[in-house]
């Protein structure tokens, strides 16, 4: 047999390596087959046990999944309830916020009202103070006016009394003028009668008339009195509380008045020291003399 060449030697080594590797692989495969064969029975038992465990685990998983689903549903229900509660709380929060805003606005309005009320109160106090001052001034002015009114009333009363006295004096003078005019007319008639009979004694006739029927003495002016008694028979006679001691004599005429009312004249017929009786001559048809009426000789100091 021929010797191998240098080119064939490496191939043989590589082949040997391949053979050795095939041998190792065959041995490993055989060992593996033996191992698999020997462990196949254990694997089956383990598989059955694992299957049973897997089934038990699946049952437990399903039970756990059902419990989890139930818990999930409960959680979802609770979550829905919580969401509804959250929505309710949010709405309530919105309402509370709105109420807080309203209360804040009300507090601001109340603060503005309080400030306005304080300002108004200060203005009112100032106005009250001013009104009080004005009232005091008005009270003082009213007192001054009252005093002026009282003084003016007194002055008016004085002027009224003066006017009443002047009016009574004027009426008295008018009555006197009327009586004098009547006396002149009567004397004129007497003179004419005397002239008609031709006596020619007009001067002595006047003296003779004075002796038979003497004229009354002039009463002093300003003598005052009052009516004490009035006759109830309708004769018009009345008694006064002044007489000859006051300078009166029969024939004197007294003016009768009450307040500012001029009632008429009282022609004295009987004169006593402390009293006198005369006939009332009314100024008007409705005038009546009454007890308590005042009488006066004249409103001046000049004798009648």
How many DSSP-defined strands? 6
Radius of gyration, whole Å? 78 Å
* First-residue to last-residue Cα separation: 224 Å
Helix content class: 55-70%
Mean model confidence by pLDDT: 80
Biggest sheet architecture: 6 strands, antiparallel, barrel
Low-confidence sequence ranges: 198-213
Tell me the overall shape: rod-shaped
Q: Tell me the count of domains.
A: 2
- Estimate the strand proportion: 5-15%
What order do the strands of the largest sheet run in, or round the barrel if closed?
A: 1-2-5-4-3-6
The SSE string, one letter per element, is HHEEEEEE
Structural class: alpha+beta
**Count of helical regions:** 2
What can you see in these coordinates?
There is one protein chain. The chain has 304 residues and is of the alpha+beta class. It folds into two domains: 16-166; 218-304, Rod shape-determining protein MreC, domain 1 (Thrombin, subunit H, Beta Barrel). 66% of the residues lie in helices and 12% in strands. It has helices spanning 9-197, 202-212, and strands at residues 224-230, 237-240, 253-258, 261-271, 276-282, 294-296. The radius of gyration is 78 Å and the shape is rod-shaped. 11% of the residues are buried.
Keywords:
Thrombin, subunit H, 304 residues, alpha+beta, 2 domains, 66% helix, six-stranded antiparallel beta barrel
């Amino acid at each position: 047999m021929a010797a191998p060449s240098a080119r064939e030697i490496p191939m043989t080594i590589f082949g040997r390596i391949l053979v050795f590797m095939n041998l190792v692989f065959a041995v490993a495969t055989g060992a593996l087959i033996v191992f698999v064969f020997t462990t196949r029975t254990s694997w089956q038992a383990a598989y059955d046990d694992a299957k049973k465990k897997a089934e038990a685990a699946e049952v437990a998983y399903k039970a756990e999944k059902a419990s989890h689903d139930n818990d999930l549903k409960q959680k979802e229900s609770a979550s829905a309830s919580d969401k509804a509660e959250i929505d309710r709380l949010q709405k309530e929060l919105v309402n509370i916020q709105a109420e807080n805003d309203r209360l804040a606005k009300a507090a601001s309005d109340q603060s503005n009202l309080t400030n306005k009320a304080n300002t108004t109160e200060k203005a009112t106090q100032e106005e009250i103070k001013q009104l009080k001052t004005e009232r005091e001034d008005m009270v003082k002015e009213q007192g001054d006016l009252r005093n002026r009114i009282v003084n003016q009333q007194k002055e008016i009363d004085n002027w009224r009394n003066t006017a009443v006295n002047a009016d009574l004096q004027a009426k008295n003078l008018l009555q006197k003028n009327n009586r004098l005019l009547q006396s002149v007319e009567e004397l004129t008639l007497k003179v004419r009668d005397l002239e008609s009979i031709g006596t020619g004694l007009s001067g002595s006739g006047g003296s003779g008339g004075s002796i038979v029927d003497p004229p009354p003495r002039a009463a002093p002016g300003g003598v005052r009195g009052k009516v004490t008694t009035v006759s109830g028979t309708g004769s018009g006679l009345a008694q006064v509380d002044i007489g000859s001691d006051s300078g009166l004599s029969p024939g004197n005429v007294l003016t009768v008045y009450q307040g500012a009312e001029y009632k008429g004249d009282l022609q004295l017929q009987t004169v006593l020291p402390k009293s006198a009786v005369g006939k009332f001559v009314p100024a008007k048809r409705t005038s009546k003399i009454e007890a308590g009426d005042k009488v006066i000789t004249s409103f001046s100091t000049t004798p009648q």
